[in-house]
Design brief:
Strand order of the largest sheet: 1-4-3-2-5-6
Number of strands: 6
CATH architecture: 3-Layer(aba) Sandwich
Shape: globular
Order of helices and strands: HEHEHEHEHEEH
Strand content: 15-25%
CATH topology: Glutaredoxin
CATH class: Alpha Beta
CATH superfamily: Glutaredoxin
Number of helices: 6
Radius of gyration: 17 Å
Helix content: 40-55%
Largest sheet: 6 strands, mixed
Distance between the termini: 66 Å
Length: 162
């Protein structure tokens, strides 16, 4: 009996260890977070139905962890439809073991929210914004980034402008 109880506890602990709250945000909140960031920040826009998005997130996580001592932070912002929030987004986040904060952008009008992130963004996925307010670095990518290109951009983001 004790052995079964221990097994159940271990299973529950392993299931909940990858659980996190998927926070609902508006683009104004995201824009404020980006503007006020005191650390190098990567904002990755993705969706559960976007295969290239799901391919790149693991190395976004790896590289943000690798550069954590340099202050690099990663935010994963889901652009899924309302029907996917929170259960489908949470399911993918658990399955792929997402560690950084995961947000769901509660916006439906891309003509409104896209320019608040970047004036050139059409709404295509995956997309990523890399920003370092301390150095003035800001670059937006409307495409899947390779691991090599992402690392190159993280390094560029960390170079101090004088």
């Amino acid at each position: 009996m004790k052995k079964n109880l221990i097994i159940v506890i271990l299973i529950l602990a392993s299931v909940t260890s990858f659980s996190q709250e998927i926070k609902r945000i508006k683009v104004t909140d995201l824009a404020k977070t980006i503007k006020e960031s005191k650390t190098p920040l990567i904002v990755n826009f993705w969706a559960t139905y976007c295969v290239p998005c799901l391919e790149e997130i693991p190395y976004f996580q790896d590289l943000s962890k690798q550069y954590k001592d340099k202050g690099v932070k990663l935010l994963l912002v889901s652009l899924d439809m309302k029907e996917a929030y929170p259960s489908k987004i949470n399911s993918i986040a658990k399955k792929l073991k997402f560690n950084p904060p995961v947000y769901w952008l509660d916006e439906t009008n891309a003509d409104y929210f896209c320019p608040k992130v970047d004036s050139k963004w059409s709404g295509a996925l995956p997309s990523s914004l890399l920003i370092n307010n301390a150095t003035g670095y800001r670059k937006f990518f409307e495409d899947q980034l390779s691991r090599e290109n992402l690392e190159k951009e993280i390094q560029a983001m960390l170079v101090n402008k004088k």
